[in-house]
Amino acid sequence: MSLQAVIFDVDGTLADTERDAHRVAFNEAFREAGLPFSWDIPTYGEYLRVTGGQERMREFLDDHPHQPQLSDADIARIHRRKTDFYVEMVRSGRLSLRPGVLRLLDEMAASGIQAAIATTTTPENVSTLLRTTLGPGAEERFSCIGAGGIVKHKKPAPDIYVHVLGRLGLDPADCVAIEDSNNGLRSALGAGLQVLVTRTEYTENQDFQGALRVLSSLGDPGDMAQIVQGEETGAQVVVDLSLLRQWMAGPGTPFPG
Ligand code: XBP
Ligand code: MG
Question: Is 11 in the active site?
Fold first, then answer.
């Protein structure tokens, strides 16, 4: 076992996209379509249990039979507009990468460790976020970008991670996934990966049993991360390749001060 690649989730992990970008874009699309409902912050948090925007809309309508019911084609059309609104918002520069993401990507590039992406969101959303936050050549930083409906079953099914591992040609034992949610954790664990969780406001009360560590973020020297679950709870860290390798090596490895 030697670390060859880090596979990143996108929403909630690379950037905190859900509350102020995806949710707002859904609501703009609902308003434009003349729908009489919108998703407030707690309601959206509840429906994050469903991965995939179209699937999330379907579940909401199934739970609210008094609301106008939409065909799959209507959902796809409204979701298409949601993607337009989201992309426009991301392009306006309102999102930034979470602490430590850029630092870790740079360290990986300098050390020859591959970066990859495994996400449920629409490919266009991923490329826009990467280009806006990482600049020109952003997508070339990643050996593989697995996104959206490229696989049959979205997270928490392991399909997207299995797909990415296949494209990388790597054994899961030689990779680590970084996720922010229980759905993502289950997906990556199902593919045989070890998983680091950087939780968000929306996911802080979720169950992360099976994660290597649960952290507030990846941390930067001026903005340290806190371990929030696991044997070193409360410790302040900056997650770098050396710490990742140490955690991957398993329990019993001494924690560095
Ligand atoms: C998060 C998701 C996505 C986004 C919305 O995916 O479940 O559905 O909430 O994006 P991940 P779409 O954390 O795996 O990146 O509307 O494009 O589905
Ligand atoms: Mg996520």
Answer: yes
Taking the model in full, what pTM does it have? 0.96
Pocket probe mutation, ligand 1, options 26, 28, 51, max atoms within 8 Å of Cβ? 51
Q: Which of 26, 28, 30 is nearest to 18 (CA)?
A: 26
CA of 106 to the centre of ligand 1 (A): 25
Side chain identity at 102, as an amino acid letter? L
Q: What digits encode the pLDDT tens for the residues 128-150?
A: 999 999 998 999 999 999 998 89
* 18-91 topology per CATH: DNA polymerase; domain 1 (1.10.150)
- Residue 159 in contact with residue 119, Cβ under 8 Å? no
How do the domains of the chain map onto residue ranges? 5-16+96-249, 18-91
Report the alpha-carbon distance of residue 17 to residue 98 in Å, rounded: 10
To test the pocket of ligand 1, the residue of 11, 155, 202 to mutate (highest count of ligand atoms within 8 Å of its CB) is: 11
Fold of 5-16+96-249: Rossmann fold (3.40.50)
Q: Is the pLDDT of residue 257 over 80?
A: no
* 146 pocket-lining for ligand 1 (C-beta < 6 Å): no
